[in-house]
Amino acid sequence: MRIDIATLFPDVCETYLSQSIVGRARAKGTFELYCHQIRDWAFDKHHRVDDTPYSERQGMLLMAEPIYRCFLEVKGERKPHVIYMSPKGKTLTQKRCVELSKLEDIFILCGHYEGVDQRVLDKIVDEEISIGDYVLTGGELPAMVLVDSVVRMLEGTLSQPDCYEDESHFNGLLEYPQYTRPEVWEGERVPEILLSGHHANIMKWRRMKSLEETYLKRPELLKTAELDDADRAVLSEITARYEENPKFFGGE
After folding, report:
1. Rounded to whole angstroms, how far apart are CA atoms 61 and 189?
2. 32-35-37 Cα angle (round to 5)
3. Where are the beta strands (DSSP E) in 70-193?
4. Which one of 5, 17, 65, 66 has the lowest number of neighbouring Cβ atoms within 10 Å?
5. Could you say which of 3.20.20.100, 3.40.50.300, 1.25.40.10, 3.40.1280.10 is the CATH number of the domain covering 2-151?
């Protein structure tokens, strides 16, 4: 996979995406990443890329021409899937990350100031993606979130597929609680079942706790999660316990 990011702050993206798991995957060639300074395609000696919008609103807007020139030169004969990071876009989900991880070529545009001239968005962008219902100063943080979440899905990034298949949202549910050494900390013990070595029982416990976490923290996810009869039976027990004793789940 190749990923290009067009931004006013390429060093910010470079620094983060050269670290940790993503950085190691990049170093060994699991994916290619190129961060491009939009100012390099400005058409005046001051490298200006913004101007005031045609409205009474204050602020500055990124101009279409430098972005378009950047895009044309970077893509060459390729046809990348172009994503604009925008609070007006569809909210990023784990399902979409999996879908994007199957693409070979992605070009990400980061806005700044009041945004980007709509004309260049209409001309080159395939989809707009948001990481949440709030507004940030620029698109760099969302772009890094997108790259991080997509690259994790690539073969070779993580040691085993279950490193991400068990994580929150991959299967529509939240992840079960996890524990490490010491066995007792501040008087609290690791659940005995995790020390049992009984794989089948541990897997059953994990599924139950995953359902419980989802029920407590993100119950709306249960409406679309793929559940079997055993899952529904466990949820019935969880619901019954909660209704009988709300404090069991931290209620009033």
Report:
1. 55
2. 160
3. 81-91, 105-110, 127-130, 184-185, 188-189
4. 65
5. 3.40.1280.10
Q: Which fold has domain 184-249?
A: Trp Operon Repressor; Chain A (1.10.1270)
The string of pLDDT tens digits covering residues 175-230 is 999 999 999 999 999 999 999 999 999 999 999 999 999 999 999 999 989 899 99
Residues present in the chain in total: 252
d(Cα 132, Cα 134) in Å, to the nearest integer?
6
Cis peptide before 182 (omega within 30 of 0): yes
User: Which candidate, 106, 102, 64, 117, places its Cα nearest to that of 82?
Assistant: 106
- The string of pLDDT tens digits covering residues 115-129 is 999 999 999 999 999
Q: What token pair was written down for 178?
A: 């996890």
Which residue's entry shows tokens 């925008």? 86
β-strands 188-189, 184-185 pairing: antiparallel
Which residue(s) pair with 3 in the sheet? 33, 106
* Strand ranges for the chain from DSSP E: 2-7, 32-37, 50-51, 61-62, 81-91, 105-110, 127-130, 184-185, 188-189
pLDDT tens digits for 5-46? 999 999 999 999 999 999 999 999 999 999 999 999 998 888
